[in-house]
Amino acid sequence: MLARLRSTRDGILVSRETITDYSLRQGDLLRLRVLDRAGGVFNVVPFHVVGVVQEFPAAPRDSFMVTNLAYLEHAAHDGGANTILVKSAGDPVALGRRIASATHSSGTTVKDIEHQTAQTVSSITTVDLTGISHIEEAFAFALVALAMALFVAVSVGERRQELATMAALGASLRRVAAFLWSEAALVLVAGLALAALLGWLMAEMLVAMLQHVFDPPPDRLATPWGYFAALAGAATLGALVASVIAWHTVKRFPLGAILREE
């Protein structure tokens, strides 16, 4: 792609958002208004699309494009670059102050990464949702654990006569407990598999719907494996605790009274 840009004098790389919004393809003619520094007026300059470019943090907030510097300077009668990125191993705030002091007479504007990050975080469009996400995670852990516990409790309540009959016919409590545990394990595995499938489908659908909202759009799904493992652990723990409580409940079953129930 860069080779095509270098070999095409009026070539231009365009952001994917612009490509999608204007249905552009490689080789299409793109007419852009460029400020003529000499005359102070905007002139229409022709470019030809040679590819798609991925935006980076210092990119402008509107349509992002990359073209050959020599062609742009010739069209705009510009003297050179007007944005310079400086990388430092030291304190960026102190370095920004030194650069601002040294270039103040030239009318430059200097911004350091610390102040830019604080400005971005405090923006109305970039709200820090870390606290809310932690609350939702805790709620999800509690919900999945209680759901498995409720399933085991309801299963024991609905099958009191069945479990009492098994015990009256000579089945050991270990066999009765194994019946409960195996059923809970099957439901747990099936539930985790179904949740993973539905979650993946919903995530893919959400990303597809928001492709034109985020700039640039996400390349792939982010998978929080640690959170998923903790969620599965919470479900397993809830099922184990409920199964142990159910086992002790079965041990105290009044077999005679349960078997006489209609």
Blueprint of the fold:
Elements: H1 2-7, E1 11-15, H2 16-21, E2 29-36, E3 41-53, E4 65-67, H3 69-76, H4 92-103, H5 113-121, H6 130-158, H7 160-168, H8 173-209, H9 225-251, H10 255-259
Parallel strand pairs: 1-3
Antiparallel strand pairs: 1-4, 2-3
What does this structure look like?
This protein has 262 residues and is α+β, with helices and mostly antiparallel strands. The protein folds into three domains: 2-76, no CATH class; 92-121, no CATH class; 130-259, no CATH class. It is built from ten helices and four strands; from the N terminus they run H-E-H-E-E-E-H-H-H-H-H-H-H-H. Strands 2-3-1-4 form a four-stranded mixed β-sheet. Strand 2 and strand 3 (41-53) form a beta hairpin. Helix 6 (130-158) runs parallel beside helix 9 (225-251). The model has no long low-confidence stretch (mean pLDDT 80).
Assembly classification: single chain
Beta-strand residue fraction: 5-15%
User: What number of domains?
Assistant: 3
Proportion of helical residues: 55-70%
Biggest pleated sheet: 4 strands, mixed
Using only C-alpha atoms, the radius of gyration works out to: 32 Å
Taking pLDDT < 50 over at least 5 consecutive residues as the criterion, the unreliable ranges are: none
Bulk shape = elongated
| Cα separation of the termini | 79 Å
Would you count the extended β strands for me? Answer: 4
Q: Treating each run of at least 4 consecutive H or I residues as one helix, how many helices? A: 10
